[in-house]
Design goal:
Distance between the termini: 59 Å
Number of helices: 15
Helix content: over 70%
Number of strands: 0
Radius of gyration: 23 Å
């Protein structure tokens, strides 16, 4: 439609200006109204895809690399940040961007909110009321972005579509980042309800054997976000999931085995090792031998690489111990 053409053109003009006169674009964005902003965002990333075949061409969908200077300014500017971040999350949900584009877009969102947090810290010298208003506004904004992320996460976790294998880790990656920000914003008051409520929401999503490794990967990266009781609760959930699921394909089992070992290593809870051991016993012998060979290979690669974290080498030692006990010992409970 003509409107879409216009949106695309004005977005392109602004993009050209972003590269040459970022200050002028910043000033323009500070005074932009919501309709104009939506029009501009439609030029970068259309909102609705009506009809599944309409957007076969990825480039009409999104932000190519050269849009990044404009996206950068949009998420740095207080008046446009929330709407721009929400739209980027929508675009990621569709699974359109390439891996590299997704990483760049996620980095821009993170950077935008990191700057907002810095500005808030710097505004401490302003009158108390003013600072409190800015803090409240930022908290509400983060809540809104998290709500959008969670609504998409629950869809992605429930749908068994191949594109979701890529989308899930990307959306999940935003959660610990924003939970960390909530902790920082609320920390001084000791009121960290928002963070723990969101964490509970994350754990209550309908995780399955295929999707739970993505969750564990994200949580292991910043284990301090989860209190001990939550790790305990998650261990029981995963144990139940694994015990009650019908025969699993080895490509489903392997990621669970790998992530359970990492979690055991980070949390010091041996029951996670029990889950990995239980699954290894389910693997047919030739696959078990193949898995053992792969772990030994990765171990020898690690020995030659001094930079690899000790975290994964401890995990590998644990695994070797498991392989030995799996061969001959009776199975012990995973609860």
């Amino acid at each position: 439609s003509n409107d879409a053409m216009q949106d695309g053109n004005s977005a392109r003009e602004l993009l050209r200006a972003s590269a040459t006169d970022a200050d002028a674009v910043r000033q323009y964005l500070q005074s932009i109204d919501t309709d104009e902003l939506n029009g501009l965002l439609d030029g970068i990333a259309p909102r609705d895809v009506k009809g599944k075949n309409q957007c076969k061409n990825k480039s009409e969908f999104l932000v190519q690399d050269d849009w990044l200077p404009l996206v950068h300014l949009l998420v740095q500017c207080e008046s446009t940040r929330l709407l721009a971040a929400s739209r980027i999350v929508q675009v990621l949900r569709r699974g359109a961007p390439s891996e590299l584009e997704s990483m760049q877009l996620l980095a821009e969102i993170n950077l935008g909110y990191a700057c907002a947090l810095d500005e808030l810290q710097e505004s401490r010298c302003q009158p108390k009321v003013q600072h409190a208003v800015r803090r409240r506004k930022l908290l509400e904004e983060i809540d809104t972005v998290l709500e959008i992320v969670f609504s998409f996460l629950s869809e992605v976790v429930e749908e068994a579509k191949s594109v979701n294998a890529k989308v899930l880790p990307q959306l999940l990656g935003l959660v610990p980042y924003f939970l960390g920000m909530l902790s920082e914003l609320c920390g001084s008051n000791g009121d960290n309800r928002a963070s723990s409520e969101n964490l509970a929401k994350l754990l209550e999503l309908p995780w399955k054997c295929q999707t739970v490794p993505s969750l564990l990967d994200v949580l292991v990266d910043d284990a301090s976000l989860m209190p001990r009781e939550s790790w305990q609760q998650l261990q029981e959930t995963v144990a139940r999931m694994v015990m009650s699921s019908p025969e699993m394909a080895s490509e489903t089992m392997n990621p669970i085995i790998r992530t359970c070992i990492l979690v055991a290593n980070v949390t010091g809870n041996h029951k996670w090792v029990g889950i990995a051991r239980y699954l290894l016993r389910q693997l047919p012998l030739h696959l078990r031998q193949e898995a053992e060979f792969n772990f030994q290979m990765s171990n020898s690669v690690e020995e030659g690489n001094a930079d690899v974290s000790s975290k994964s080498s401890v995990a590998l030692l644990l695994l070797q111990a498991i392989f030995q006990t799996v061969r001959d010992a009776p199975y012990s409970t995973i609860y």
